[in-house]
From TrEMBL:
<keyword id="KW-0614">Plasmid</keyword>
<protein>
    <submittedName>
        <fullName>DUF1403 family protein</fullName>
    </submittedName>
</protein>
<dbReference type="Pfam" id="PF07183">
    <property type="entry name" value="DUF1403"/>
</dbReference>
<dbReference type="InterPro" id="IPR009843">
    <property type="entry name" value="DUF1403"/>
</dbReference>
Length: 318
């Protein structure tokens, strides 16, 4: 058997992209147009999901980070993507990442578990989002499944999910967007959800006509149209992110035969599965010193990037 560190990774296939005509340009004032671009964009994203490249885990986790950054801003926090990375990846083993880091955890778990929700995952998610109580949210488990089985198009089912959550708990907007991604994954029969919608919650998709700054809220006129536009925007951004990650993953593939560090295979697997890997990584087969040398070598080969911009406590990723 070829050791993991020396086993070449498969070539990355060419990737689907959302065509320019399916990306919103200016105000989308028609429900028909909104539905049309959402369908076209989701088709491109669906094709990408079904390719299932080896780096799909890192891709989903980076989308989770983007979603979490918007989510924490919605609840009035100021942490950006870099701060969320630090809170999560630099915490002690099993340590508390703090309030913003726990929101990040909710979207990380969304990206790594099969779509659908049970009582335990609902309770955990509510806790990570800082939503107190929650017994009245229990019926949402069946509503997620029912919307996933329904004949409604994915964007309309996702909008219905957000509206229902907000009707029960107006303070649970983050949960509504989180569950909406679950519904989209169920509707499209994806093996894992793709974090999408909350990243667009403050975008132009939900701005009132006439350029006014007020956001269209769940249940208000134009909200379903906004969800269609938001999904089109999010799908386009997700495909662009995949196109950014893929070449670096291909260079990582080319670097594998050149790596001699014992335990390099474990680090490579983490790079393919996670948004970031600490430079102080230590495993049963890789020392911290070995990890530092390995990451320096991969940066020199342009196979990974150092993400923090610091001289210490570095983080690496595709």
């Amino acid at each position: 058997m070829i050791p993991a560190a020396n086993r070449a990774l498969p070539a990355v296939p060419s990737l689907p992209a959302v065509p320019g005509w399916a990306q919103p340009r200016g105000r989308v004032s028609s429900d028909v147009e909104a539905a049309f671009i959402a369908g076209a964009a989701l088709n491109s994203l669906d094709n990408l999901v079904r390719i299932a490249p080896l780096w799909a885990g890192a891709w989903r986790q980076r989308l989770a980070l983007k979603c979490a950054a918007t989510a924490v801003s919605i609840v009035g926090r100021t942490e950006d993507e870099a701060a969320l990375r630090d809170a999560w990846y630099l915490r002690p083993v099993n340590g508390d990442p703090g309030p913003a880091g726990r929101v990040f955890e909710a979207w990380k778990r969304l990206a790594s578990r099969s779509p659908g929700i049970d009582s335990a995952s609902l309770k955990s998610t509510v806790g990570w989002m800082g939503i107190h109580g929650g017994d009245e949210l229990e019926p949402l488990m069946e509503r997620v499944a029912a919307l996933g089985r329904s004949s409604e198009p994915a964007p309309i089912a996702a909008a219905a999910m957000v509206i229902e959550v907000m009707a029960i708990r107006p303070d649970a907007e983050l949960l509504g967007w989180w569950l909406a991604d679950q519904v989209v994954a169920l509707k499209l029969r994806w093996p894992l959800p793709v974090p999408l919608l909350v990243s667009q919650a403050r975008s132009s998709a939900f701005r009132e006509e006439g350029g006014r700054s007020r956001r269209i809220r769940p249940g208000e006129e134009g909200f379903e149209r906004g969800v269609c536009v938001a999904l089109a925007q999010a799908a386009a951004e997700a495909c662009r992110l995949a196109a950014d990650i893929a070449p670096r993953a291909a260079r990582l593939e080319g670097a594998v035969p050149k790596l001699r560090a014992k335990g390099a295979g474990e680090a490579i697997r983490l790079l393919l599965d996670e948004d970031a890997v600490p430079g102080t990584l230590q495993t049963a087969h890789l020392t911290r010193w070995g990890a530092r040398r390995l990451f320096e070598r991969l940066v020199a080969l342009d196979a990974v990037r150092e993400l923090s911009g610091r001289s210490a406590f570095k983080l690496y990723g595709l």
